[in-house]
Amino acid sequence: MAGRSILVTRPRAQSRPLCDRLRKLGARVVAVPMIAVQPPAPGGRLDRALHDLKRYDWVIVTSANGARACIARAAALGVNLRSTPRPLWAAVGPATATVLRRARIRVAMIPSRYLTEAIAVEMPDVNRRRILLPRTDAASPALVDALRHRGATVEVVTAYRTVIGPRRAGPRIRRLFEAQGVDVVVFTSPSTVRGLVRLLGAARQELERVTIACIGPVTAGAVTEAGLHPGVVAREYTIDGLIKALLEVSDRGKNHLAR
After folding, report:
1. Cα 198–233–120 angle (5° rounding)?
2. What are the two backbone dihedrals, phi and then psi, of residue 183, each rounded to the nearest 5 degrees?
3. Residue 250: pLDDT above 80?
4. CA distance linking residue 107 with residue 147, whole number of Å
5. How far apart are alpha carbons 46 and 40 in whole angstroms?
6. Which of 14, 114, 152, 172 is the S-S candidate for 93 at Cβ 3.0 to 4.6 Å?
7. pLDDT tens figures, 9-66
């Protein structure tokens, strides 16, 4: 990836490990967050759920941001998330699980594919079980619907709010594309896709000349819905998997990364 300019669209607090990896591989990296993450207001439904965790059989956390939000609010409230054998905790993938484990929360379940749809299928018997689902306000209802179809009682609470396409990033991102300063755009969630498309506005056609790399099929689906082509899709839905997919495409020399 030497010499290629790669745009990283993750929230600023999460982008550094990916940016560092890409720079070590020789890429010129520009990080411009396409979303911003805002904590929930104190005293809301998340706080009430954390105060009464024993009511739930499972807590399903579908993002690292969701895990951080639960841990931060529990700390502010003085709630010990490790004090009882219930509830059990499930994480959508290894990054989310790592955040929970660093807080000494035991992760009882990670699906074989790091997708919310895999959680719905692979969760052990959830019939008549009470499940807490702390997540972003921008999440799809698909997981909730699937769990309820299996007989679970699901309580959804907003753990954080996702601001898509924060205005402050607009001028910089438009200048970057006008100067043709991007060869590859890396997307790690559907909301980052929507954020960039929104910020580019009428200049969104600039995305047709760059390579679009996606962390997994859900993000790739958002790219397709935007009328664009995902040129690189990781088979393992992690940062390691994304880096590997970029290297494979670069090494093959076929469908090469835009230059």
Report:
1. 90
2. -100, -35
3. no
4. 19
5. 8
6. 114
7. 998 878 888 999 999 999 999 999 999 999 988 999 999 999 999 999 999 999 999 9
For 183-216, the DSSP string reads SEEEE-SHHHHHHHHHHHGGGGGGGGGSEEEESS
Q: Which residues contact 128 (CB under 8 A, 6 or more apart)?
A: 151, 152, 153
Whether residue 254 has pLDDT greater than 90? no
Angle separating helix axes 217-225 and 190-200, nearest 10 degrees: 30
Instruction: Please say if the pLDDT value at position 253 is more than 70.
Output: no
Which CA distances in Å does 59 have to 106, 111, 203? 11, 14, 42
- Count of alpha carbons within 13 angstroms of residue 19, beta-carbon side: 16
Over residues 234-238, mean pLDDT: 91
Mean pLDDT value across residues 159-175? 91
